[in-house]
Amino acid sequence: MAILDILHFPDPRLRNKAKPVAEVDDSIRRLIDDMLETMYEAPGIGLAATQVNVAKRLVVIDLSEDKNEPLCLINPEILEKDGIEQMEEGCLSVPGIYEKVTRANHIRLRALDREGRPFEMEAEDLLAVCIQHELDHLEGKLFVDYLSSLKRQRIRKKLEKENRQQTETATGAHQVI
Amino acid sequence: MSRQNPDPRVAAARIVNGVFSGRSLSDLIPQHLSGIDDVRNRSLAQELSYGSLRYYPRLHALIGRLLQKPLKAKDGDIEALLLIGAYQLLYLRVADHAAVNETAGAAKKLGKRWAVGLINGVLRRLQREQEQLLAGLESDQEARHAMPGWLLGELQARWPDNWEQRVSALNERPPMTLRVNRLLTTREAYLKLLDAEGIQAKANTTVPMGVDLERPVDVELLPGFAAGMVSVQDGAAQLAAGLLSLSPGQHVLDACAAPGGKTSHLLETEPGIQLTAMDVDEARLLRVTENLNRLKLQADLQQGDAAEPKGAWSEQDYDRILLDVPCSATGVIRRHPDIKYLRRESDIVALADLQQRILEAIWPLLKPGGLMLYATCSILEKENEAQLRPFLSQHTDAQEKPIEAEWGEARAVGRQIPPGEAGLDGFYYALVEKSVV
């Protein structure tokens, strides 16, 4: 297993649209394991393949405190949405930013599991929000897209500055070694 | 989606709920606060966690009266939010409407939307009927004194005349006390450094290297902390090293060393000793290493069980032994208010048994003419003089060396520092000498 690099907003690769997984094989299962490890280490409760620069329709989720209830959705499709939920969201690709987003609070969906078997499920509250958030990633959409353009601009500036500083520190460290 | 929500009330609810499942605050705080970037939110989360546990017996009783039916076991996080909300209403200067709304809103962030209305309702009623509710708790001793009943009984028995004063000392916020490293500087010089940083402090009146801060600060802000100029340690704990009459060349054993506060103080007091620092817990020994490294001190670190000495450290005779045994920590509840929830009366018997086994097992390692200091941060007779009295009568080669001091109260054996006396933690010390046959 390996920890993968998570892309940070405003990286243009976060805008890629993911393609369906053609076959759920060992390489996909390896990707799932790596994504789970990356998500747990972050720490996060959901991660889409897009965020680790893999353009495949695949997300992993685990809301449990003990990291022992992983949920893996391959080629997920939302069948129904209802209710309204406003919740503060944060994203591993937009670190340190938390903003309220309005979404459906109840959904029904269909997906394949890690063995490639189709299943249907219902979700509400935090799980419903998390699934919608991750499925947005597969369309190249981020939660900051729901905010006003002024707010989004401010977040972009803040993160660009942080990314720059991180690069500088990393280069500095390299020179010392 | 990211997990760490920087909402301080969500973090505090997770921390308090962690205590409900048996973990300690000192374990949970770093884990849950590391994800909160904002300093004010971090200190609010800490304040809410400590405060709601400090007043747990009272807040729990209040909430119990306001809930129609008890919460389910899996909803410990919601109970935690209710405690946190009640703590804000009763003890913090947070605007009441913010305390209620933000606390109820936190339930949603924990994924428990159903609890928002419940928390709102309970906290609003508490806000409205606060006085009647508190008056209704007058006859409930645990709630009134915010102390578990068994411990209240112990305090009343130990200090029949002024137990209420002891109880309120244990409910206070603890001072932050430093120990200046005499190998690197003097207390006077360090007080000047603090003054230059705008950190208000004064010399502790009980111990020679102690400095009391006016209000707690992050250790990173203390001048020379990383360079080992100073450590954080209560004044009562700073008494240990001075009691052992250390001199160069002595072999000294610190038998329950972690996290290494007293260990490093032994070396600061007399750098010429040969110190073996031992602890049963490998992970906690790392803390001793960190402390010693920061202070640039050296000791022989050993993992081992003080109750069952074996290996090289146990085959040697020692001139001095510090036996800072595992205890109920009832003297330091103001620093670890989670003890009110975690510690049960039944734990005391097991602890006393362990202490007795350690005493018996370590005693043979002391040289004739040597000194052993038995120490606890407990206020319970069972862990203190009641432990030493039978030990002294069963070992003809052991005599108490009475501690003459300004601090504390002489007990049948040893001295008890009552919690809060001269601003100190509750501690117990007894000095035992081995006779030369």
The portion of residues forming beta strands of chain A comes to 25-35%
What is the number of beta strands of chain A?
A: 7
Structural class label of chain B? alpha/beta
Describe the sheet with the most strands of chain B: 9 strands, mixed
Name the poorly predicted regions of chain B.
none
Radius of gyration of chain B: 23 Å
Q: Spatial order of the strands in the main sheet of chain A?
A: 1-2-3-6-7
Largest sheet of chain A: 5 strands, antiparallel
Poorly predicted spans of chain A:
169-177
Average pLDDT figure of chain A: 90
List the helices and strands and how they pair.
The complex is a heterodimer of chains A (177) and B (437).
Chain A: H1 26-41, E1 46-48, E2 58-61, E3 71-82, E4 85-91, E5 94-103, E6 106-112, E7 118-124, H2 125-138, H3 149-176
Antiparallel strand pairs in A: 1-2, 2-3, 3-6, 4-5, 6-7
Chain B: H1 8-20, H2 25-33, H3 39-54, H4 56-66, H5 76-91, H6 96-109, H7 115-136, H8 141-145, H9 149-158, H10 163-171, E1 176-180, H11 187-196, E2 201-203, E3 210-213, E4 230-232, H12 240-243, E5 251-254, H13 261-269, E6 274-279, H14 282-295, E7 300-303, E8 318-324, H15 339-342, H16 345-362, E9 366-376, H17 385-394, E10 398-400, E11 409-410, E12 415-417, E13 427-434
Parallel strand pairs in B: 5-6, 5-8, 6-7, 8-9
Antiparallel strand pairs in B: 1-3, 1-4, 2-3, 9-13, 10-13, 11-12, 12-13
Task: Describe the protein in words.
The complex is a heterodimer of chains A (177) and B (437). By secondary structure, chain A is α+β, with helices and mostly antiparallel strands. Helix content of chain A is 33%, strand content 28%. In chain A, the strands form 2 sheets. Chain A has a 5-stranded antiparallel beta sheet. In chain A, strands 4-5 form a two-stranded antiparallel ribbon. In chain A, strand 6 and strand 7 form a beta hairpin. The two termini of chain A are 27 Å apart. Residues 169-177 of chain A have low confidence and may be disordered. Chain B is of the alpha/beta class. In chain B, strand 6, helix 14 and strand 7 (300-303) form a beta-alpha-beta unit. Chain B starts with 7 loop residues before the first helix and ends with a strand. The longest helix of chain B is centred in the first third of the chain and has 22 residues, at 115-136. In chain B, strands 5, 6, 7, 8, 9, 10, 11, 12 and 13 form a 9-stranded mixed beta sheet that branches. A 4-stranded antiparallel beta sheet of chain B has the order 2-3-1-4, covered by helices on one side. At the A-B interface, strand 4, strand 5 and helix 2 of A face loops of B.
